[in-house]
Design brief:
- The structure is a single chain.
- This protein has about 725 residues and is of the alpha+beta class.
- The strands form 3 sheets. Strands 7, 8, 9, 10, 11, 12, 13, 14, 15 and 16 form a 10-stranded antiparallel β-sheet that branches. It has a 4-stranded parallel β-sheet with strand order 4-3-5-6, with helices on both faces.
- It is built from 25 helices and 16 strands.
- A hairpin with a 4-residue loop joins strand 10 (about 600-605) and strand 11.
- The longest helix is centred in the N-terminal third of the chain and has 28 residues, at about 210-240.
- The chain folds into 4 domains: about 1-205, no CATH class; about 210-410, Vanadium-containing Chloroperoxidase, domain 1, CATH 1.20.144; about 430-545, Rossmann fold (3-Layer(aba) Sandwich), CATH 3.40.50.10330; about 560-710, Tumour Suppressor Smad4.
- Helix 5 (about 90-115) runs antiparallel to helix 6 (about 120-135).
- Helices cover about 50% and strands about 15% of the residues.
- The protein is elongated, with a radius of gyration of 34 Å.
C-alpha cells in the first residue's frame, strides 16, 4: 500500500488575480470579436479534402469529436462532482459542477449572440481544463506530463476535427476555444474562497493484488482458457444444433405484438454498448470515491475489456449464423454465438454485485444481487424475442460471462484490502539500518520514503539511513550501525554492497536484509527474496531468518561465488552503461570476447586431498548455485551445508560453449565440459596471474586463490516461504572478532 499526497494548490495572490482577470478579459474580447465578425480566415476545404481520402483518419477524428459533446460535460458535472463529494472534497466538487454545468448553459447563451461560435470546441477546452486542473493532481508526478499531453492532444484533435471533418468555420472554432478558456478563468476568479480541501487533495493507492507481472499473466491465461472453452462449446452447437434452438425464435417471432416488441426494445437497449459504457462510466468513479481505492475500478475495467475480447474472438472463430427469422434490430455485423449483450450485462452487473457484497447495508447487497440476476435474464429474453439469437447463444453468453467474472474476481480480488487494525507499538530503540549505494539506487529520496512507508505499514519504525562512499562500499557503515545497537542491517544496492555488509556482519547476531537494486542480485535470487522494493522491505520486516555459510578469500567474505579466469574477465569488460540499461544480459556481450581465449593450467587442492590438474577456462567456488537468469550451474550447492561447491569450466571450442549454454538453459545435468567438486577449503594455483572476483566485484589478479567456508556465520532475512527455516537470532547484537 502506498499513499500519494499531492502538493497543495496555492491561493491566488492579488497580482495573480489581476493577471488572470486580464487574460479572461482578453480571451472574452477576442472570442466575441471573432464570433461577431468572423472575417476572412481562408477556406479549410482543401485540408478537408485531403483528410477525406483517409477513411481511418476520418473515423478516428469522428470518434474523438464525441468528446466535445455535451455528454462529457454532463458526466464531469454530475458523476465527477459526485465522486469528489463522496471523497469529502466539497469545494472542489462544487467547482467542477459549476464549471461543467455552467459551460452547458454558457455555450448556448453565447451562440444566441453569434451563431458562428463553435460549441464542441468550447466544450472540449472546458472539459480538458477541468481534467487538468481538478483531476490531474490525483496522478503520481511522473505521470502528470504524460496525462497532460494526452488531454491537450485530445482537445487539439477535437478542434482539428471540427475544422476538417465537421466543416466548421475556422473563426468560429477558434472563438469557441477562446470562450472556453475565458469561462475556465472566470470560474476561478468567481470562487473567492479557494477550495480548502483542494490543498489536501490526496489519492490513496492500495491496489496490490500481487506482483503486476504475475497478475497480468494469470489474467491473460484465464482469458485464453475462457475463450477456448466458449469457442469449443460454440463449435459443437454450430455443428450439431438441437431442434428446439431454431424452433424457439420462430415461435416467438410468430407471437410478436406491438406492446411486447416495444418492451423487448427497452431491455435490448439496456444491454447494448452505449448503455453498458454509460453504467461503467458512472460506477467506476463512484467506486473509487466510495472505497478510496483503485482496485474496484481496475477490476471493473479488467472484467469489461476481457469480456469484449472474448466475445469478438469467439464470434469470429465460431461464425454461427443468426436465426432464420426477421430481425427487429436489422443486420448485425457479428455472429450469433455468443450473445455479446447478455455477456456484457452478466459481467457488468455481476461485477457490481461482487463489489457490493462487503457492504454493511443489506439493501445495497440485495439490490445489487437482484440486478445481477434480473438484467441478464431480461436482456437474454429480449434478444431471442427480437430474432437476434438462439436460446443456446444467450446461454453461451451467460456462461462465458460468469466464467470470466469468476476468474477476474479470483485473480484481482477486488474486495481485498489491507487490515485497518492499528499497527503494534513501535520499539523505541533502533532496530534497523539501511546501507544504501547511491551509485546503484536512482532517486534515493523516493526510495527512502518507500522503504520507510513499507516498514511502517508493518509496525516498524523508520530505519537509520547510511550511504556508501567510493572509499567505503559498506563495511564501515555496517560497523557503525552495529555499534548503534540495531538488530538488522539492510543492504540497498547490488551484490557488491551485499558482500560488503555481509563481510562486517559475519560472526555477529545482527541479521542481513537485502533489497536488490543491482545488476545480478544473485544472493536475492538464490534465496527467493523479491525484486520489488516494497516486497523486499516487507520480507525484512516480517522477521524470518536463515543462518547461512559464507566463503572467505584473502580475509574477505563472499556469499555467492568466487571466481578465477573467464568469469572475472567477463565482469571486467562488461560496459557499465549497458549494465545500467539492460542488467545482467550485458555480461553476454563481454563474454563473447573471451570465449576462445588462452586457457590456463590449474592445480586444485581440495582440503587435504591430492592435487588435481586441469586445463580450464575458469574455476568457480560457489556458496549458492544459480547464475543470473536462474541458470543452475551448481544444483547441489546449499548455503547451509557447511561446504563449498567448486566448478571447473573446460570448454575447448565455441561449439563446446554452445553445448554448455544449451544444457544450462534446459537444466540438464551433469553439464558438459564442467567438472564439479565439494570441499571445505580449496586452493587454486594457475600457471600465470589471472583476474579474480568475489560476488561480482573484482579483486587483485594473482596466480593463487584460496577459498574456505565459514559455516553458520551470517543471519539473513528471507521471505516466509523460504525453505529450511531456522531459529531466530538473539535480539541484542554481539560483536565477534
Amino acid at each position: 500500500m502506498s499513499t500519494l499526497t499531492v502538493s497543495p494548490h496555492e491561493p491566488l495572490t492579488s497580482r495573480g488575480k489581476a493577471v488572470l482577470g486580464a487574460a479572461v478579459a482578453v480571451a472574452t474580447s477576442l472570442g466575441l470579436m471573432l464570433s461577431l465578425a468572423p472575417g476572412d480566415w481562408g477556406s479549410a476545404a482543401p485540408l478537408a479534402e485531403v483528410i477525406a481520402r483517409y477513411p481511418a483518419v476520418v473515423t478516428a477524428l469522428t470518434a474523438v469529436m464525441n468528446l466535445g459533446g455535451d455528454a462529457v460535460l454532463w458526466w464531469l458535472g454530475t458523476v465527477g462532482a459526485a465522486a469528489l463529494l463522496i471523497s469529502r472534497h466539497r469545494y472542489l466538487a462544487a467547482y467542477v459542477a459549476v464549471t461543467a454545468l455552467g459551460a452547458l448553459a454558457f455555450g448556448p447563451a453565447a451562440a444566441l449572440v453569434s451563431g458562428s461560435l463553435n460549441g464542441p470546441a468550447m466544450n472540449a477546452v472546458v472539459a480538458g481544463g477541468l481534467v487538468l486542473f481538478a483531476l490531474l493532481p490525483a496522478l503520481p508526478r511522473r505521470l502528470r506530463p504524460v496525462a497532460a499531453a494526452v488531454v491537450l492532444t485530445v482537445v487539439l484533435a477535437v478542434v482539428f476535427g471540427q475544422i476538417t471533418v465537421a466543416a466548421g468555420e475556422v473563426s468560429g472554432v477558434v472563438a469557441g476555444g477562446l470562450m472556453g478558456m475565458a469561462w475556465l478563468g472566470a470560474t476561478v476568479l468567481a470562487i473567492r474562497r479557494w477550495p480548502a480541501d483542494g490543498r489536501e487533495f490526496t489519492a490513496v493507492y492500495r491496489f496490490r493484488p500481487g506482483p503486476w507481472l504475475r497478475t497480468s499473466v494469470t489474467l491473460v491465461a484465464a482469458w485464453v482458457l475462457v475463450a477456448a472453452v466458449t469457442a469449443a462449446l460454440g463449435a459443437v452447437i454450430t455443428a450439431h444444433p438441437p431442434a428446439f434452438d431454431e424452433a424457439v425464435p420462430r415461435w416467438l417471432a410468430a407471437a410478436r405484438t406491438p406492446r411486447w416488441t416495444a418492451l423487448s426494445d427497452f431491455w435490448s437497449q439496456a444491454g447494448n454498448t452505449h448503455s453498458i459504457l454509460a453504467v461503467c462510466l458512472i460506477v467506476a468513479p463512484l467506486a473509487v470515491a466510495v472505497w478510496r481505492r483503485w482496485r474496484p475500478a481496475v477490476f471493473l475495467a479488467a472484467v469489461m475489456f476481457g469480456e469484449v475480447g472474448v466475445f469478438l474472438a469467439v464470434a469470429a472463430t465460431v461464425g454461427r449464423p443468426r436465426p432464420s427469422v426477421s430481425h427487429l434490430d436489422g443486420h448485425l455485423p457479428t455472429a450469433s454465438f455468443p450473445s455479446g449483450h447478455v455477456a456484457a450485462t452478466t459481467c457488468l452487473y455481476g461485477a457490481i454485485a461482487v463489489l457490493a457484497m462487503p457492504s454493511r447495508r443489506r439493501w445495497a447487497r440485495s439490490l445489487a444481487l437482484a440486478l445481477a440476476i434480473l438484467m441478464p435474464a431480461m436482456v437474454a429474453l429480449s434478444r431471442v424475442y427480437r430474432g437476434e439469437h438462439h436460446p443456446l447463444d444467450v446461454a453461451g453468453g451467460e456462461l462465458f460471462g460468469l466464467l470470466w467474472l469468476a476468474a477476474a474476481t479470483l485473480i484481482v480480488r477486488p474486495n481485498a484490502s489491507p487490515s485497518l487494525k492499528p499497527p503494534p507499538p513501535c520499539p523505541v530503540e533502533p532496530w534497523c539500518a539501511v546501507i544504501a549505494n547511491p551509485a546503484r539506487v536512482g532517486n534515493l529520496p523516493r526510495r527512502r520514503t518507500e522503504i520507510t512507508a513499507a516498514l511502517a505499514a508493518r509496525g516498524r519504525p523508520a530505519p537509520m539511513w547510511l550511504e556508501t562512499t567510493r572509499d567505503d562500499p559498506g563495511r564501515g557503515q555496517t560497523r557503525q550501525a552495529i555499534n548503534a545497537g540495531v538488530t538488522t542491517v539492510v543492504a540497498l544496492g547490488g551484490d557488491g554492497t551485499v558482500m560488503a555488509c555481509a563481510d562486517a556482519l559475519a560472526g555477529t547476531s545482527v541479521a542481513l536484509g537485502v533489497i536488490p537494486m543491482g545488476t545480478g542480485n544473485l544472493l536475492a535470487a538464490n534465496l527467493g527474496i523479491p525484486t520489488r522494493l516494497t516486497d523486499a522491505a516487507a520480507a525484512v520486516a516480517a522477521g524470518h531468518r536463515r543462518l547461512l555459510d559464507v566463503g572467505v578469500v584473502d580475509g574477505r567474505c563472499f556469499t555467492v561465488m568466487a571466481g578465477m579466469g573467464f568469469d572475472a574477465r567477463m565482469l571486467h569488460d562488461a560496459p557499465a552503461a549497458l549494465k545500467a540499461r539492460i542488467g545482467w544480459p550485458a555480461y553476454a556481450a563481454a563474454a563473447v570476447r573471451h570465449l576462445c581465449g588462452v586457457p590456463m593450467n590449474v592445480t586444485l587442492r581440495l582440503d587435504d586431498g591430492p592435487p588435481i590438474r586441469r586445463r580450464a577456462r575458469a574455476v568457480l567456488v560457489g556458496n549458492v548455485g544459480r547464475l543470473p537468469g536462474g541458470l543452475p550451474l551448481l544444483p547441489d550447492a546449499d548455503p547451509e551445508d557447511g561446504i563449498l561447491d567448486i566448478a571447473i569450466l573446460m570448454p575447448a571450442r565455441r561449439r563446446n560453449w554452445l553445448m554448455l549454454a544449451w544444457a544450462l538453459g534446459r537444466r540438464r545435468h551433469p553439464l558438459p565440459t564442467i567438472e564439479t567438486f565439494h570441499a571445505k577449503q580449496v586452493t587454486i594455483l594457475s600457471d600465470r596471474p589471472q583476474p579474480r572476483e568475489l560476488d561480482g566485484d573484482l579483486i587483485g589478479p594473482s596466480d593463487r586463490m584460496t577459498a574456505a567456508v565459514r559455516p553458520a556465520a551470517l543471519w539473513v532475512c528471507v521471505p516466509a516461504l523460504s525453505p529450511t527455516p531456522t531459529p531466530q537470532p538473539p535480539t541484542r547484537p554481539t560483536m565477534r572478532f
